[in-house]
Write the structure tokens for this entry.
Amino acid sequence: MSRELRLRIVSGIVLGIIVLAATWVGGIWFTGLAVLIMVLMHYEFSTMSGAPAKAPLANAIGWLAVLATALFVLTSLPVMALAAIFIGAAGAGFAGYKRGAGPWSAIAVLYAGFSGLALAEIRGEGLFGLFAMLFVFAIVWSTDILAYFCGRALGGPKLAPRISPGKTWSGAIFGAAAGVGAGVGVALAIRHGGGWMIPMVALVLAVASEIGDLFESWIKRRFGAKDSSHLIPGHGGVMDRVDGLVFAAFAAFLLGNLLPLSDHAGVADELAARLLGL
């Protein structure tokens, strides 16, 4: 076993323990983790796009927006967090427009801000939030693992050769199927039955995870980067690790607000209850 592979395994185990522990405890611990992910994602995205050098004002506005969003997420003010994200993205986009960095500065705020907000809102503080977060994790991790191994084993037509030459349709299909199976398995472990909505929601989240992976690959290819950063030994950057997770979290957040109302109080409880039909 190579030194790099050992480093990657150890880093992965440490990260997994931290994430699962924070998810289990919930509250400020998971919210703090979500905010940390948001801040680091904005740092990586803005650094890759060259915003600090090309458009320092746009970059500064972006950072103010992300830090304001972090404060509102930590103080459980999701509406204010959404306002900070949209206003900050608009301001950063306008400030960087003439220097050609406007769209990227705006996307950095939207991408990072929604990531932190969606993760924090899904987990919340209650038991339903824990169920929903485990549901999302199971889908994303199963999709990612099976897509990788089945894609390498089966090969076949490329999914998006200009964006990520290694990804295949066989990997995407088997990965999505694994995500659906994992989501249904978690739902059955939590409650009896689950109905037709569980596999449908799981499929949407699995596909969203794969789109998130492709989006991050496109961003890196656009700016000629192999990894989003070198913050995580053996793994690259934070964006490299959470690309699928944050898109699945976006989708879960939207679905949680679009599905029929439940009888639970609180944003996080409503979100989790609608996702799993609790």
Summary: The first helix runs from residue 3 to 25.
